[in-house]
Amino acid sequence: MLLEEKFSNLPTSPGVYIMKDENGNVIYVGKAVNLKNRVRQYFQNSQDMPPKTRLMVRKIKDLDYIVTDNEVEALILECNLIKEYRPKYNVLLRDDKNYQYIKITNEMFPRLVTTRKVEKDGSRYFGPYVSGYSVKQTVELLKSLFMLRTCKKKFPDQLGKGRPCLNFHIEKCLGVCKGDVSEEEYQKLVERAVKVLSGKGDEIVEELKTKMFEYAENLMFEKAQEIKNKLSSLERIITKQKVIYADDRSEDVINFAKDHTHIAIVVLIIRNGKLINKEEFVLKADEDTFERFLEQYYSDVVSLPNEIIIPHRIENADNIEKMIEKLYGFKVKVTVPKQGEKKQLLDMAKKNAEISLANRQRVDDVYAEALLTLKNILGLENEIEKIESYDISNIAGADNVGTLVVFEDGRFNKEFYRKFKIKGFEGQDDIRSVKEVLTRRFTNLEKHGRIPDLILIDGGQNQVNAALEVLNTLGFSIPVAGMVKDDRHKTRDLIYNGKEVGIQEYPLVYKLIYAIQEETHRFAVKFHREVRKKHLYESILDEIEGIGEKRKLKLFRTFGSIDNLRKASIEEIVKAADIPYEVALKIKEKIGV
User: What protein family is recorded (predicted)?
Assistant: First the structure.
């Protein structure tokens, strides 16, 4: 059926529409109260649409739809399909994977770990948290405070087998692996960590203070000092949780600030009367972005409040309440306060959003000016919105790898970073490596996003020529420049159209190119080290009888390098790979003590 016929046959019912490109890939999912009217809007007055929407419309080659009974069902179905397909043009919240959660695992003797993915695995999750450093710090403090295990042993299979690790001997772990700690005793410690993460850490502080004073009164000063140290650590976490209410109410306070291109949305997360977290999102602004944000945010959230506080009434508030109840079996009220404490919290969120937007705008202005200047320096016709930067890394021709870093819309877009192991030949040949990497990238278009406006190669004219040869052969006309370094391996100039283009007299351009070159180099070196470490393990460990692929992988994941393995004790090696003592002894003899 032709696309035009599908449009004309669309029902007027509520439902979800699914846009596809010429290869059948889902590029957009949307919901509608009236499918026919909503889809028709995409093909009328297209000049009034944002550029990205116009681009999407040009790519639509097929359309599917699913009819639902009402708008709430359409909303839920839309959220599920977006999670399933992650369509290119459903850009709202696409960077949510960058936020971290604290996870309490669902296993015998649970562990505290960090994760970027929330799964329906029976574990408990807290977050999301914007600062990865704060998450890691909090997890380490809680594990130390409550002596929770850090090992990955599988219980009950490994219970009572092997020796406890160093953490047990320095009293940072109960040593549940010995088999003499009950699940009930351990679970009580886990629940204490849960209290801290839930904003109820004050109870734990009072308990510890009472115990500290008891030790001091009984002249047990070392024990009292241990408790005091734990209190200091615990209070470092709790001081980040600002008391908002005297009672234990739970709310999400959400406000925004917007300009003509972006909207900054701030979520203040209040649990048990305390402000325990703040989330910020800066998104491309459309007239309904705030409402769409609320729909997607609450379609996959770990911790729900009793009340969602927003700055103004929105049309889909009832649908959001119904969606949450249907998805989670939990009733939440969406409210718009006009005065009082809740209005003051809205003002706080608004102020934070304005600061976030202003910071984003300052950065955007700098990058926009730098990109415009770079365009003029190189004499390019088109605006520079996306830059792809390539680097080749090896040591004396060994472990050849190539990497791709993407700078897009004023940001490093890690979604489209790529790693390439050079497969076409052995030995060192940067030119052939560049050709292989560019060929693989531009013959596999669907995995790399839109075509770049400029390609940067970490190297000189020979590397540039190699890239241009590949692009011309494949039918692409994309400007390519080489990033040249000085004798101290610092960014110097660009090579373009056979000439060296000075950039140091343009500070913003220089800083931009320097940042891209450093990020490209960092990513390449990191990947090369990963490959080199793996090969080093393979070359040495393959020579040891009793070390197969599984044990080799366990050792690699635990120690990461031969040097670390050399420093490890025989007991640590036995525990890491679950291997016999005599095999661990062979390893130590092979690599040197």
Answer: Belongs to the UvrC family.
Phi, then psi, of 388 in degrees rounded to 5: -110, 130
Between 24 and 472, residue with greater pLDDT: 472
Question: Of 211-225, 244-258, 342-356, 571-585, where does the model show the most confidence?
Answer: 342-356
Percent share of the chain, pLDDT over 70: 88
- Residue 177 and residue 207 in contact, taking contact as beta carbons nearer than 8 Å: no
Rg (CA), the chain: 28
The alpha carbon dihedral of 392, 395, 400, 404 has a sign of: negative
β-partners of residue 277 are 269
Could you identify the residue written with the tokens 């002249």? 219
As a whole number of angstroms, the distance between CA 402 and CA 420 comes to 5
Phi, psi of 498, deg, nearest 5: 80, 5
What average pLDDT does this structure show over 230-242?
68
The encoded tokens of residue 188 equal 């009580």
104 and 112 Cβ atoms separated by less than 8 Å? yes
Going 419 to 422 to 428 to 433, the CA torsion angle's sign is: negative
Token pair of 579 as six digits: 């291997």
Residue 252 has pLDDT above 90, yes or no: yes
What is the strand order of the sheet 26-32 is part of? 26-32, 15-20, 62-67
**Is the Cα torsion angle 64, 326, 197, 309 positive or negative in sign?**
positive
Domains contained in the chain, CATH given:
3-85 (3.40.1440.10), 100-242 (no CATH), 251-357 (3.30.420), 379-531 (3.30.420.340), 544-591 (1.10.150)
Per DSSP, the three-state class of 338 is coil
Residue 222, SS3?
helix
Looking at per-residue confidence, does 23 or 591 come out higher? 23
Give residue 97's identity as a one-letter amino acid code. Answer: K
